[in-house]
Protein 1
Amino acid sequence: MPRLDPESLPVHVDRLYRAAWALCGSPHDAEDLVQETFVRVLSRPRLLRNDDELAYLMRVLRNTFLSSRRTASRRPHVTATLEDLELADQRVADRPEQALETQALYGAIAELPDDFRLALVAVDILGLSYGEAGRALGAREATITTRLHRARRKVVASMDERPPREGSAPRRSLD
Amino acid sequence: MGSMSEHPDRERVAADEQRIAALLHAVEAPAPAALHQRIAALNAASRARRRRPRAPVLGFAGAFAAAAVALTIVLVAGTGSAPSALAASRLALERPTGPAPAALVAAGTTIAFPQWSNRGWPSAGARSDTLDGRRVTTEFYRSYDAGTLGYAIVAGSPLRWGAGGRVVSRAGADYAVISSGGAQIVTWVQDGHTCVLASRTASAATLVALAVAQDGGSPV
């Protein structure tokens, strides 16, 4: 049975961070969640049963998120600001509107029910296949498909309900 | 019959979903550099632990080197917004605000503070603080010949160290030893939470010995 290679883990940090941000709704909490996930993963050798690395990490991220939230007994909250978005490069810096849209997107995802949010994070943010997402989340592939469909629809609805920003042009729809 | 083009609403919904999916795939929000560096430090410490049993002598040297690298990395990462163990140590150097109960468990954790009376360190009080939103519980102990020390436990994921220092390995675990402002500070991670022992009067060796006694052997 293959073992998780700790040396390969750093390449997944960015994607896990985005996934954690969408789960928590806060970039600061996302940092804590990713770090806690790596603490767990690195605490002892890990076997990859039917997972690839990313699917395995998604499972640990989910478990860490749920257990930490149970401990904190709180709903996810959105505290991101525009400054929280570390712009990857000048191409993104030149697109402040997209940065705002990203922030709104992550906020909308953080408000989804857990099952929908996890399915969307696994497939649309981490890039897992439906099958991998199903194994990582302990759900059937068909269930993941349904949850993902509903999650996306809720996000679309949430984005459509956003109030226009002060001083900005009238909000355009997602069309 | 029944094609997508005959159902404009369904077509619109599908287009919206595709757009959301495409937008999420395209998002460029990299993890902060400080997080990358903390993960690298965790990995270095993990690597050192993995190597240790195979070649004890080289393993110790390797662990020390790796931990030194990790320390350097974490120190470089010290510009991040998260609090540091050094900041927590300042709370451990404050005064207690009241007596400690007989069995005190750190807020937000399941870690119980030890009874060190039989080691010559009876309890001298406790305090509760918040550090950047994290709950910090501190119990103080006072020795007749070595003064006072504070033992702070910070709820939440491990903190960066935040100051110069060295790493010592005991019983399979690593402890960061820091000297700052005339105080000796020892920090380690237990059950996923940062623990800090700090004193202006006790030696670093004493603090490490107490940390080892309390800790189950988790790495920094």
Note: The interface with chain A takes residues 12-13, 15-17, 19-21, 23-25, 27-32, 34-36, 38-40, 42-43, 45-47, 50, 81-82, 108, 156-158, 189, 192, 218-219 of chain B (CB under 8 Å).
Protein 2
Amino acid sequence: MEDWKDKIIGSLSGMDRAKPPTDAFTEIRRKLANRTKPKEQNQRHWLAVAAVILMVISSNVLLLSNYLNDEQQPSYTSEYSGMITSYNLYDNEQ
Amino acid sequence: MLDETDIIKRITRGDQRALEHLYHQYSEIVYNTLISYTKNAEEAEELLQDVFVSIYDTAHKFRFDSSLSTWIYRITVNKALDFLRKKNTAKRKGILSSLYRKDSGELQYDQSHFDHPGVKMENVEDARYLFQALSELSENQKTVFILTQIEQLSQQEVADIMQVTRKAVESLLQRAKANLRGILEKHYPERVMALPNASK
């Protein structure tokens, strides 16, 4: 008589193959497409960082050049001290 | 008709049509191998997608020192074993409780009654017992059993996939069958009772 355990162990022989779902490759394509998006986002992120750094550097250069230009300009500082010596307008009335 | 070397070279260059070509050639064996490990069609489908994404990503690493089918089987087996390890770890971490229905306390995802879609009608019940018992084998014994007995690969092909000797595969298969007998006897003693002379 056939051993029942051997019968169970051999129960898969000669079975048909299961068919994978028909849309499985569409899902694979979708996964590959979705996966490339983070790379693009990553590139955009670095472009934004580079733009900010460039902006900081150029504004610093602009400030520095303005400062140096100011140093070379003649000073227009006027001295107004003494123009108004007293605020007492009715000094002479007393 | 493209040969396998051309297909791999085209996939390396990012050609998704070549990947589709490879998919049509190998999706059935990959899916069937995965379903033997997972005993769940949805999980097998998810892993099938992961296997082909991995093939797309790692095609440049294929050195043509083994056959393409050996390489694809290797990726498939590794994906399946990784998946089962993660699942077992999750169970150990206490997520197991969430698998139970709150109302009845029954398992939500009870896979004990997995019926492989390709099994002959007269073998459905036996196959169910076998898949249940298979989950108790060690990784190597399970792999050898699935690849030789279900996928019908030769012991040498399995040795190439697992990167062990053919002798090791032979020994693993013997131990797998012996352990399966023990597991079946332990879990289904009613069979022994029903057929007292059957196991002699």
Note: Chain A is about 60% helix and 0% strand.
